[in-house]
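Whether sequence alone determines local backbone shape is best considered at the level of individual chains. The sequence in question and its structure tokens are set out directly beneath this paragraph.

===
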Amino acid sequence: MLKRSKAIIALNNYTMSLSAPELQNNVGRHQLDQLLSTAKELDNNHENVFYFNFLKDDRFNDNDFKDGDHLSEEGAEKFTKILKDSIKHKLDIEL
């Protein structure tokens, strides 16, 4: 189904607030490895799927979050711009 679709699918994950390390620690290593592996596999095997990993992105700070893993309005606007720019950059390179 992904190969027939002309849609661009962007898989991503964003960082968590550094002031909530318990959330980062609750994501088990196996679970995270499986998520990253699956996302990379989809990215590698489908020309219209792109994976962007923002888990350790230092452009975010605690002010970008309303709690440990939910973006504030400002953080959501920042993330949207970063994701948009990342997709645009990837498509420019791919074209």
User: Anything to note?
Assistant: The longest helix spans residues 73-94. The chain has a mean pLDDT of 79. The longest strand covers residues 9-14.
